[in-house]
Amino acid sequence: MSDDLTRPDDTGEGRAEPTRNSRSKEEDRWTQGPEVPSGKRASQMPGAPDDDAETLRERQRLAQLEMMDHWIGGVLTEQRRSRRWKLFFRLTVLAIVLVMLFATLYSLFWDSPSVTPPAQRHLGIVEVNGVIASDSPANAERIIKGLNRAWEAESAAAVVLHINSPGGSPVQSQRIYAEIMRLREQGDKPIIAVIEDIGASGAYYIAAAADEIVASPVSLVGSIGVIYAGFGFEEAIERIGVERRVLTAGENKAFLDPFQPLDEEAEQFWQSVLSQTHRQFIEDVRAGRGERLSDSSDIFSGLVWNGEQSIELGLVDQLGSLEQVSRNQVGNTDWQDYTPSLDPFDRLTRRFSQVVAEVLGVSTPNTPLRY
């Protein structure tokens, strides 16, 4: 009976089994050995649990060497990248300098206009494209040079001003007008103005000197007037609390200062300047067009008309195109452009200056008056 009581049965009841914690300690060798404080354990590099202190120090030294190699590699990579960027910028600057040098040499030696014009009869074209101003492609010096080239070409049956411009500087327009009138008085060959999209204000001033004006039925023609446009900021500057400091020698030197009010006397004076300039404009147009102009008072009011209306007012002689003029003069559509080519270097620097002026907000015309 006692043997039965002390002997475990087949089901295992009464057998003493080890607990989960004691079994995990026996199986996990990482928990064996003396306990290391948490701070010391964090400072040591991971390794085998039975590594001694010398092995751990060696592992730590190797890890430090590896970290140093990685850092040195990063520094060398950054230096190589920096050298590449320096080389890139140097090559870019060198390329720009070479392009400018080539453009200058090209304009001086290879891009000069042909001395010998075409042998067959043709139209001598001079382009008047864009705003007429001293710092634009449509400047007086360039156009006058083209006029003389076309005029002197013996095979050029006629000189044609190919106009597509809204006008511009009164001085530049007057210079071109005077040169056309000088050539016109010689009477060797006709000078014809062909207006494309627009021939207004200073551009019409130039066209009025020609022997004949041709325009499309939908071309914009006219705008015989003078304009000055500005702003008044006197109240704005007071609101933001800015003090304007202007020193002049002459009581009216700053009468157009936009930060000062324009008094009645100054306004009357400036209006007289505009009126006198307008009168000069009218006189030159009448001298160029003569009796072809109608008696309508609206002609010199600054209004613009299309080509068909301009015929009725005497501002245009006939409706047509450059191709029709060429067929009438030489029997075919054959023409030669005598406008001097633009200097690429000058074009680049001029465009850069214009962009900088526009970005800085200091882009202003050479003259406050505009045709």
UniProtKB/TrEMBL annotation:
InterPro entries: ClpP/crotonase-like_dom_sf, Pept_S49_SppA, Peptidase_S49, S49_SppA_C. Residues 186-326 form the Peptidase S49 domain. The chain crosses the membrane at residues 87-110. Keywords: Hydrolase, Membrane, Protease, Serine protease, Transmembrane, Transmembrane helix. One of its GO terms (molecular function) is serine-type peptidase activity. It comes from the Bacteria. GO terms for biological process: proteolysis. Residues 1-30 have a biased composition (Basic and acidic residues). Residues 1-55 are annotated as: Disordered. Pfam families: Peptidase_S49. Belongs to the peptidase S49 family. This is Signal peptide peptidase SppA. It comes from Vreelandella sulfidaeris.
